Amino acid sequence: MKRSKLWSGLTSTSAALLVVGLIGQNLAAANASYINTALGTTTTKVVQTGEVGDTTYFKSQFGDFDDPDAQAAAIAAALEQNVNEMREGAALLRNENNTLPLTNATRISVFGHAAVDPAYQANSAGNKVTNGALNSIDLKTALEAQGFEVNPQLWDGIAAGTATRAQGEAPQFGGGYSVTGTATNTEENKAFYQGLANTWANDYKDAAIVVFAREGGEGHDLLMDDVDTDGSTISSLALHKDERDLLEMVRKDFDKVIVLLNSPYQMEVQDIIPYADSILFIGYPGHQGFTGVAEILKGTVNPSGHLTDTYATDSLSSPAAVNSGTRTPQFANVAEINATIGEDENAEYMSFQAEGIYIGYRYYETRYADAVMGQGNATAPVGALEGASSWNYADEVQYPFGYGLSYTTFDQKLDSVDVGEDEITAKVTVTNTGDMAGKSVVQLYAQTPYGDYERQHGVEKSAIQLAGFGKTQELAPGASETVTITVDKYLLASYDTTAHDGAGGYILSDGDYYLAIGEDSHDALNNVLAAEGYTAANGMTAEGTAAKTYSFKQSFDDDKYRTGENGAIVSNQFADADLNYWVDGAGTYLSRSDWEATYPVEQTTVEATPEMMNILAGEWYEKPEGAPSYSEVAANFGVDSGLNLAMMKDVPLSDHETWLKFIYQLQPEDLPNATAESFQSPAVGDLSPAFAVGDGCDSVGGTYPLTVEFNGEQVNPVTTRYCSNVVLAGTFNADLYAGRGTMMGEDGMWSGYMINYNLGNDLHRTPFGGRNFEYMSECPILNYLAGAVEVEAMEKTGSHAGPKHFVGNDQEFYREGLVCFFNEQAFREGNLKAFEGSIRVANAGGLMQSFERLGLKWYSASYALNTTILRNEWGWNGAIDTDAAPCFDEYVDGGYKNHAAEVLDAGTQEWCLDGVGGHGQWILQKAKDTDDGHLLELLTEAAISWEYAISRSVVTNGTASNSVIEHVTPYWQTAITAEIAVTGILTAVFFVLLVLSKTKKKAKKQ
Length: 1006
Known about the structure:
Shape: globular
Number of strands: 38
Helix content: 25-40%
Distance between the termini: 15 Å
Oligomer: single chain
């Protein structure tokens, strides 16, 4: 009896363990990419079959990858880049009575929950920095390093408080945290600080530093309607009650009050100004950016950063706000849509981008210019502050794009402008007229004609636009430097959908063009207006300086930019992304021809028609007429041409025949792995090994290979978290853009990454976009220029740059499947232009796409975008990757990201986080089932694109002409297999013993 119970129990236990092992094996196989990444294991190794020479084709500038000193030097350089970004990217917005620098102040009090619990970064890809982490420096430590004595009791008291930085409890993938987008309860209340008042009553009163933070993140925009602790509903970017109470208390008790904006999102600073002597924008500092902050406060460093966004009085006054973010409307017939095509198509929300080209300063400055010139009903109250009888720029804008103060003064003189056939060259002499050394940013802006033709043809024009920039070296008092800025005239062209008899194309308008330097966008515009004869009597906020402008005439030209790369004709491609294409007259775009009649005052929503729903369903692929059979194409495979990865690293893509021979060594069943991009991407047959990729706009999310001691343990240092991209872009320093690219490339090389998906080129359509901290600015030209420099530098390292999220990922709420409607001029001059520098000009190795829909089609399924624009007009050959579209143990046919044939046929070739190649496997099976050789050809081209990117990367290090790829089984897979085998055998043994025990028992009874 006892033995039967024993064998029964053991059988049950071992059987349960067997079931767990089998289930675990399936789950582990589906998530092998993530497991290998976490454990640092791989599924391949490169083996040399003979003598080889130096196979380190991509070398670190710091030394060998197995040299601890070289690794330490690389980390030190990365951290120095991080600090330099803050030194030159933090923007001084206010400095009354020269409160800063705090040259003589030593004993200070620091306030704000964000001081002790700062936002080093927001929640998204990349390594996370926390207080006390290896290589991180908090604000208190940074201040003390500059000689400040920080009120210890106040600091500890705040640290013991209960405020939180708008974080939810649900953990996010990669060890992050969720964010809620609110600013409520992110600061301690008045009673809390009153309880600490004794800590500064008689000491630490040289100055007060107050830190405020705002935090969005992946999946979460900041709330446009935030319920404060007093029950009022306000913007999350407005000053909240607890913050205002804190400022009132601090202002009463301190002679000097400095506010730090630990926020890449534009807070409503007009409520802060009455309490603050100085305001310093610092964004997110990353690992060691607080060092730069402290140096600026002390005066060790003179601030030279400038804003990359407009700080409006009302954060909701942007014309884009009405149809975006947390105010995004639904289709009027959502129930019908879901019943017709299914909820998994994610087609409930629509965003009509009524603002057209007028994002950020292009709206505020253009409306201001028209108000000065008395045209377009620009002063009408629509869109003005609540209760205002008219629209007034001085009331609407606190700090313009490009704004930033210094501790010294500079004089900038426009020496000369040379207008050539393709380029414009401006020379500007900068002189330090103050008494402190510092750097000066030269901003060059342009105004292009807005005349009868443009009005009649619906070509919108910004009254001012960035054209180029430069930055001086540090200038001593009295010193001068001449800065040369070169502008591609292409950046002055406008897209006209009516050009060439309606075919569309870029035009250079007829008329007077103005170039102007200025301290910021508004100052430059005032200079242009002055040159045009306007004065303060016309309503200008200040008299401009005509001498800082240059004008030239240009005749109408619609041929100069008629063709793109390789002779491809540039023409209209996105007519069906305009809401009015589907529902005539449903949407009105903002136009400077009549601000009053076109400013969006209510949400735009429509009922999706049956034709629209048919496209939203996502299935339209048909085998092309005349396509080869599957067997015809498959017959090319399995032919050994003797080529390996090392041999292909110098073969140009134009040698298509050789690339085909390389790929044809595979079997068709190997091709899906060439569509599988994940944190560890799988080997593609025997052609290329498994490798890792990085992901993050300000951190590649990697680790260095050699351990160091930290807190008594041996750990692998993580790669650096740099400043948020808003800070980097705000340096207006091409050397620092290149430095970021170089160091992220180094981080990628040391981590073994083939590519890093970084370079946030999307626009800040509104101040509320959850990932604005990853993206550079509201200005497409700044993104174009800065992105090109960063990508070019990173591509030289051997760890590719992958700009993201291509394109139009300007909100996080409802992002998966959001239907975005816009006009083609706005799309080409805004979203596409913002990426064009990184992709077409700098030739990035790859890109990651967006979750949203371009009109009714997912961006990844748009042939116009991924083939016509990227491949044809831009002549780009990098790897095109979706945003996250994981496929685990089984491909699900359906759901807006699971229409694989449509996506591949559109030109997208890799699926992000699909480490098992599920999408590619489904396509291969469909090709077999439908005898579709065209799909197999597309898989072949995808493999060429992927292998080409690999062959130009650090993955080739260690390979040679006699190398072979061997497949290995990671130890964790062996362990799982062993567990299954052991528990299987034990289950069988215990079951036999159980049967024998019961048989003996039965025999005894008989």
